[in-house]
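Internal QA ticket QA-208
Title: Verify multi-chain structure generation after dependency bump
Assignee: T.L.

Test input:
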Amino acid sequence: MIVKGYEKSSHLEAMETLLKRLPPNHPLYTKIATEIRITKAGDFGEEIVFRELEKMQLPFEYLVFHKVLLHGESAFELDILLITPFGAIILEVKNIIGELEFQENPSQLVQQKETGEVNKYACPAIQLNEYKYQLSQFFIDQNIPIQIYGAVVFAARNSFVKVTTNKAKILYRNEVRSFLRKFQHSNPTHTGEDIEKIKDVLLKKITPFNYFPLTKYFSINPNELVRGVECLTCGFIGMYKVTRTWICPKCRKSDPIAYKHAIHTYFHLFKDSITNKECRDFLQLNNRHEANRILTNFHLNKTGSNKSTQYKMPLPNR
Ligand SMILES: [Zn+2]
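Actual output:
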């Protein structure tokens, strides 16, 4: 049974918005562009493996969770976690194409693409073993004795492991089902009731990581970002307000609710509250009453009065 379904990374779209508003010569531009690429590839791989799990029917009771952020010795995030009568199983998913070689001492994963390009990554087997340790500490803290298993799963169809490692179980995505099915030959250590109890504990303890506001997460000075309302048709930033709508000077498209996306952007990138002045500054609006109308329509939580009025994002900061 799927308990926590697949979700793409909560900060992916916000990172893309951030990049659009960052001057291309900014020292963090390349870092954020890379982070977007890695996050997208990671999400893609996790989704492929997760969809496989959704279709699968194992011969025993099991629960599946996507993206599990927990606190053991420190915070750690598992791509996919299964709870079964035989123990907890972590699937650490990697979406890395090309020829892959696990190297030892120091441990690393070396990728060689068809183009000849070579990249080095932190060893996913070491990473998995660290997660297994963290998860076991978490369950000890919760007074739940449970065996922890795991595997590194290469999700891409065109990844080829040339040299493997014995530090962890390594699977291609089409091996996941048979890997899981094999557990039925072990002795069950957990009843259906135990599994339910573990589910309740996990649901209570899983906390989504808060990346927002992104300028704080990436240590960017908010003043360095381009201001203005973005045209969702052509991507131009700097739509202007006329009566009842916003116009894009580049593609001439009009959009009466273009400001909405901009306000969400403000909350994701700058901070979780906004004043009338900050709203005018960000939307490049010179009309105080118009800004007031916009913020009032947003159903935000209002604190303070007159010039010091702050409008706060009402939802949890996700
Ligand atoms: Zn446009």
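Spot checks passed. The chain has nine helices and 16 strands.
Status: verified.
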